[in-house]
Amino acid sequence: MKPQLILLLFILFFLFLFPVSLLAETSREAVTLDTVIVTATKPKDAFQTGDVDVEQTPAFFSVIEKEEFEGKMEDLSEVLEKEAGIQVRQSGGLGSFSTVSLRGSSSDQVIVFLDGILLNSASGGGVDLGNISLADIEAIEIYRGVTPINFGKASIGGVVNIKTLRSKEGLNVNASVGYGSFNTRKLSGFINHKPDKWDYLISADYLGSDNDFEFLNDNGTEWNKDDDSWEKRNNAQFDQENLLTKFGFDFTDDVRIDFVNQWFSKDQGLPSWNNGENTKTTFNTNRNISTIKLTVNDVGPYHFNTSTGIDYSWKEEDYDDTEGHVGLGDQHSIYTTTCYGLNSFLEWLTEWNVLSFILDAQHEEYDVDDLLNSTNPRESSRDSFSLGLQDTLLFFKERVIVTPALRYTIIEDELRSAVSSLGVPLEAVSRDEDYLCPQIGLKYCILDWLTLKTNLAKYVREPSFFELFGDRGFFMGNEDLKEEEGANFDAGFEIKWMMSEKWLDRISFNIAYFRSEVDNLISVSYDARGIGKYDNISEARIEGVETGINLEFLEYFRFVGNATWQDPENRSEIGAFNGKQLSGRSEKSYLGRIEAMYGRFKVYSEYVVEKEMYYDTANLLKAKDKEKVNASILWLFRSFLFGFEAKNLGDDHYEDFNGYPSPGRSYFFTIKHSL
To answer: CATH number, domain at 461?
Structure first.
């Protein structure tokens, strides 16, 4: 048995046998079930040097706290899709490949950070949200459009910043178990101890499912109903394990060192396009990320705050399709990505401004081992170096905040010689690029309850190795791809008002207009088999409006709603596609959720909708509209938190990716026990 599973089982055994009578004080502290989805207030002990100060940033953002998904059987994609401006595409049920889009961007145009470590690798393909464990997450920050300088890299779409659990004072221990439809099972355990200057934290979890849900298989003949049949999904099972360990020491109140290691492993099957019963294709992932970070505050006569981290990440992906059920021909390859990184942040605070500087450097190696020896794989490396400077200018007692910033980035690629899948020799190629990306933001608090925001930024994204060469059977590369160049603009306002009415306690409302102009947009088009090929679109424009509302009323109730309308338009010089909608993006998305909280009970129901999406560049394959109704109830009894969820109550079967259906109606039950 693997050591992380032994540790997990030990924590579970200890918790569930621990005398409940000793937990009375803890249970009183954990009674509150109220949650916050979008907030600009952070607990002081949760803020660290290098974090974005959300009180000052002009960026449009939202924060999802851990309490929002506590006690639920969800993955990261399900949590994110409920936010305004976000759309998630998933290739099946829980744990399947899933990517995120912000404001009509592609998944490659959204950068994802995990404790300051960039998860978007040079190998590319977008960050698979299914490979990030919710059990480790303390909070998720979403920055739409403009990217705060705190992050070493900027993006056309925006940033998803994932913060893992952080040590708190005293001893904190909990464990949870869950079970549900399609033989879905979950185990997690957590312990954190901070007695004095030193602290440690261990979080372990397991998640798995057979994902053998029923769906209507049309066998790729949409217009012929005679060969349609209801079938169980084949070869979509997965098992994943995750272990997060942290150790920290406070030398003084201003000097701290942290050691962090996160290990992740996932074994999963990949179903074929026709749901073949004998498909045995697998895609297994192992990943480890290690970090050492030193934080030193109040340095020198100017009282600088600094944070410097060194990280090493290793990822191995084993794609086995030796019988050619999924991709193009027989394949069995191992893809290994190693990355060394350095990130340094420095800030200088005065009464009228905050000057921030960031240095970010990475060296990444991408190696492919073709176990069938059918090709000489294309091995590659990328060096990136970024400098960023931002000045947050504070006027009129911080009622007006202006934030100019500038990034300078150097990218050096080494693409080694190889032989293509057609036997054509490929020469070694070097690519050297440098970019200068300015941005500016304005935040104006007109009244205590009314704030205006606007931002303008330029971004560049280089093509990934995945887009250049393609791999894993699903995609064909294009070595002639050019880098994307884009400019983002947004403007809007926020209202936060405490009410004196008896029936209405609090209201918050926000609305923003956004627009993105992109040259050489890298887009993927799919053929009838679902195989994708990357190309540059000479020009694209994405504009839209996003809005959200939060009402707390009648003491026990809360309503949360958001909506996004966007027009992702292909403005290519190729006449056939000019004016077409960019594939993989929905024009409209909505969420409405009503919550009721009384005593130790919390009940909610939500309605999620996405409409008007096309699978293909020519807009000939229109996706079915997505409509989901979910409901849940949470009950806190002493030190136990019980949760019951019902997902997709309307039993709606839809496909984010053509030919890859999602589950229908499903049910899940979880129990969490805390000390």
So the answer is: 2.40.170.20
106 falls in which pLDDT band (50, 70, 90)? Answer: confident
Q: State yes or no: pLDDT of 255 exceeds 80.
A: yes
Q: Ranked by mean pLDDT, which of 416-425, 532-541, 643-652 comes out on top? A: 643-652
Task: Pull the structure tokens for residue 35.
Answer: 């949650």
DSSP secondary structure code for residue 638 in this structure: T
Q: The tokens of 71 are what?
A: 């006690």
Task: Average the pLDDT over 356-369 and give the result.
Answer: 93
The alpha carbon dihedral of 473, 478, 479, 481 has a sign of negative
- The DSSP call for residue 530 is S
Structure pTM?
Answer: 0.87
Closest to 557 in 3D by CA, of 511, 619, 618, 602: 602
In a domain, 434, yes or no: no
User: How many structural domains is the chain composed of?
Assistant: 1
Report which residue type is found at 209. Answer: S
Instruction: Collect all residues with Cβ–Cβ distance below 8 Å to 360 and sequence separation of at least 6.
Output: 152, 153, 341, 342, 343, 344, 384, 385, 386, 388
Whether residue 357 has pLDDT greater than 80: yes
Spatial distance between the Cα atoms of 190 and 168, rounded to a whole number of angstroms: 13
Q: Which residues pair with 349 in a beta bridge?
A: 354
How would DSSP label each residue in 96-136?
S-EEEEETT--GGGEEEEETTEE---TT-S---GGGS-GGG
CB-based contact 598:557 (threshold 8 Å): no
Domain assignment present for residue 70? The answer is yes
633 vs 637: CA distance, rounded Å: 13
The pLDDT confidence band at residue 473, using thresholds 50, 70 and 90, is low
Q: How far is CA 459 from the centre of its chain?
A: 20
pLDDT of residue 8: 40
In sequence order, what DSSP letters do the residues of 471-486 get, joined into one string?
-TTTEE--TTPPPEEE
Q: Which residues pair with 196 in a beta bridge?
A: none
| Cβ-Cβ contacts under 8 Å for 396 (sequence gap 6 or more) | none
In a domain, 294, yes or no: yes
pLDDT value of position 641 = 94
* Residues contacting residue 439 through CB under 8 Å, at least 6 positions apart: 146, 147, 154, 404, 405, 406, 407, 455, 456, 457, 458
In a domain, 458, yes or no: yes
Q: Are 479 and 467 spatial neighbours (Cβ–Cβ below 8 Å)?
A: no
Rounded to whole angstroms, what are the CA distances from 1 to 5, 9, 222, 287, 564? 7, 11, 46, 19, 47
Query: Count of residues for the chain?
Result: 675
Give the structural domain span for 216: 3-425+440-674
Flag whether pLDDT at 432 surpasses 70.
yes
Residue 625 DSSP code: P
